[in-house]
Amino acid sequence: xxxxxxxxYTPDLSPVAERDLTGYTVVAxxxxxxxxxxxxxxxxxxxxxxxxxxxxxxxxxLVPVGVxxxxxxxxxxxxxxxxxxxxxxxxxxxxDSETMDPEYLTAVGDYYHGLPAREEPAG
Length: 123
Description:
Blueprint: E1 25-28, E2 31-42, E3 45-51, E4 60-64, E5 68-72, E6 77-80, H1 84-88, H2 102-113
Parallel strand pairs: 1-6
Antiparallel strand pairs: 1-2, 2-3, 3-4, 5-6
């Protein structure tokens, strides 16, 4: 996957690219991560800020939209193609200003781009 595509929805998710996902539950391959607190597109780096609740000590995480594998509007659920541990190990999100910091966003993109590719389940 080219590094820039980590910041873009996959072509099959193009119809949801303009949808407001705020409040949607975010689910990893091994369980729930939290819910979408907000979404942003700074410097062409589209991402979701996910409130993890108590799972990661009440902090938020930043998830590039390129790891979104499905969006189910009826269920208000976003599924990502990584594990909870992988999300937890991503560069730490501390302040809202980081969503506009190209260096921080690049570090996040490099991290997610370096994760092993996963096969999508058939069905």
